[in-house]
Specification:
- This protein has one helix and six strands; from the N terminus they run βαβββββ.
- By secondary structure, it is mainly beta.
- It has a four-stranded mixed beta sheet with strand order 1-6-5-4, with helices on one face. Strands 2-3 form a two-stranded antiparallel sheet.
- Strand 5 and strand 6 form a beta hairpin.
- 18% of the residues are buried.
Length: 74
């Protein structure tokens, strides 16, 4: 199976709009998710991504989950 290409956005730039990033297995992820306004768009360095889209940030893959980036574990 061919590996799909993910946008590579390096590290978040603190001067650009980026949605919060949480770890998939972090206990606080659900709490943080409940505090989000329920947007279906995540932002990474001012670029908008739809719910379910993924980006690569360094060695991590981030999945957009209703306005919150979830760092995937592999």
């Amino acid at each position: 199976m061919a590996q799909r290409h993910l946008p590579d956005d390096d590290a978040p730039d603190p001067e650009l709009k980026t949605s919060p990033i949480a770890d998939e297995l972090d206990e606080d992820t659900e709490t943080l998710s409940q505090q989000m306004p329920g947007d279906v768009v995540c932002y990474f360095n001012d670029q908008g991504y739809s719910h379910g889209e993924e980006v690569r940030s360094g060695d991590s893959i981030l999945r957009c989950h209703y306005g919150l980036w979830i760092r995937r574990t592999e």
